[in-house]
Amino acid sequence: MSKTEALTQAFRKAIGVRIKEETEIIEGEVVEIQIDRPATSGAAAKTGKLTLKTTEMETVYDLGSKMIEGLSKEKVQSGDVIAIDKASGKITKLGRSFARSRDYDAMGPQTKFVQCPDGELQKRKEVVHCVTLHEIDVINSRTQGFLALFTGDTGEIRSEVREQIDSKVAEWREEGKAEIVPGVLFIDEVHMLDIECFSFLNRALENEMAPILVVATNRGITKIRGTNYKSPHGIPIDLLDRLLIISTQPYTEAEMRQILDIRCEEEDVGMSDEAKELLTKIGFETSLRYAIHLITAAALACQKRKGKLVEIMDVSRVYQLFVDIKRSTQFLIEYQEQFMFNEVPGEIEEDTMVE
Q1: Which of 20, 64, 140, 229 is buried deepest, with most CB atoms within 10 A?
Q2: Are residues 68 and 128 both part of a single domain?
Q3: Distance between CA 286 and CA 184 in Å, rounded?
Q4: 165 shares its domain with 203
């Protein structure tokens, strides 16, 4: 799959389509189900009658083998309120009628009671389906239809297919059958994209059905991949000009303590206030990620000594066992001569060079 195809699929996964559809349904309370089973095997298929009622009317329906199978599958019995989709024949059990609430003790607490429907038995109901543009693309580009979504191997989708889908969705929007729900596409480490991808993003953002794009990077002024030009964050200036840049600030000590409190609660780690204070200081001196990693390690150290609450001694123990990046760098500088490969010139080499 090409880079631009992967980006196109990501864009179209972030755009939802809410499709409205009117269907005819039969909704009512089951009064009686009569099923006539054949006396001998191999005889005619099962037939039956279903009596449904609302607060205003009651009707008897003849049942075929498919409907009988659907009713038995849903375990429908008299007193249940059901809905039948006329187009597909799908039966949905809505609950038990309040008229049968006196039988509650024989049913159990999981039984849901609903009112008996009012008005006509046959009603028109609006059903809303929510799908993404990418799902519509996959369904229309594969012979196996919607089953292609489960295989996972979507491959490249032809631009003609997408154009037809876009024009159809635009037609539905004009008719009021569908509405577009733009989502959010988040691209982390955006400096890893090359100039070809950035050019594609520039063009894709101009599309009327583009999602909200959020990008994140931790690079300063660096080379744009695929070129020899340097740019802030490794993003071309023309794309940067289209973005709203959000400034970030380091956490304060109080905010760091709050984050560590939440993390301890999430990981079910009981920790004393003194240990949390020490962990906050460690996080402030090193990094928040390092402090968060120490929570689980300190809990294991506490478990090893059969303690119930993580104390200062546990945090100190894991702080000595697992070094942070500053101490690791210091260690490398001190013992650089003992490593197999070393690119930092040592003091001995420098002295030799002077001589």
Answers
A1: 140
A2: yes
A3: 33
A4: no
